[in-house]
Structure formats: C-alpha cells, structure tokens
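Reviewers of the previous submission asked for a worked example of the structure-prediction workflow described in the proposal, so we include one complete record here. The input consisted solely of the amino acid sequence. No template or homolog information was supplied to the procedure at any stage.
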Amino acid sequence: MQNVVLFGPPGAGKGTQSALIIEKFHLIHLSTGDLLRSEIAAQSPLGIQAKSLMDAGILVPDAVVIGMIASRLEAHPEAQGFIFDGFPRTIAQAEALDELLAGYHSKISRMISLVVPEQELKQRLMLRGEALGRSDDNEETILRRIHEYQEKTLPVAGYYKASDKYFEISGVGTVEEIFGRISQLLETPTI
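From that input alone, the workflow returned the following structure tokens.
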C-alpha cells in the first residue's frame, strides 16, 4: 500500500497532479475539503457536527477530520493506497494521521512537496482567478494564503523530513514534466 501526502503552497498544482496520480497509480483521493462537503451533504453525524461548527465560524477540530478520514479508510479496504490532499496541515494532524494509519497496519509512504517560486505561484493563482472567476484568487488574498501556508503549514515538512519521508519535486514546468518527476519517485520502492 502506498500512502502519499501531496504538499505545497496554494497554486503549486496539487489538484492537477493529484488527478494524474490517482489515474496512474490507482490511489484513493482524500481531500479534506471534499470530505467535509460530502459528509455535510450526506448529513452524517460527523457532517452535522462539522456544519454546525463551520456555520459558527469555528474551525473543524482535528478529531472530526480524522474521524472522516477513518470512515473513508474503512470504506475502501481494497485500496492500493491513498493520496492525502490538504491534510495534514499541522504537526498535530500529522501525528494523528500516523496513529490512525497504524491502526490499519499502514503508514505514510512519502510526502511529495511541490516547490514553486512565490512569483510563479502569484501568477498562476491570478490566472486561475481570471479564468474561473474565483474571488479568492485576488492579489491580496493570494499573498495572505501564501503567508499562511509558510507560517502554519510549512512546518509539517519538517515532521516528514525527520522520518526520511519528505521529497521535494520542482513544481515548475509543464504538467507532464512535473508528473514525470512525481511518477519516477512513486515508482521507486520505499524502504
């Protein structure tokens, strides 16, 4: 089983590369945003709890998110592995994920970090905002999201570096070139 954390700042190409990884390596995609939306739509107990918190402007606690991930793991016992997109965002979440996976006799195989210069990120996000009409892809919001990533999420990389599971991939180039780098890494057996 191969469990991969796809990591990188907003605009690094995680969504695009996740889709290609899922197709080629047959991994199950676990996006915390997608999980929250589907649990809320299904009106599951976790979804109802998450919605009430979100409606109150409160961040969904790690325990609720981990519960959603556990449900997804249980729903796919035949999976060849999972790709975690947007999670973990903190060291506490990474530790909770490790504990959860250990209960399934599994672990994170690799964290793949897409490294993209800040100027390139800004340009990509501005173009995406124009193309898709996304109001959250304006310059002020983009800079705030990049800063938030650097301050709060980037430290998670150190957690995976400490266990030799962290791998940097240049996120600059064509979609195919970047995916080629990722594929080469995923085709290399883990220790």
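Residues 99 and 105 are 10 Å apart (CA to CA). We consider this example representative of the routine output the project will generate in years two and three.
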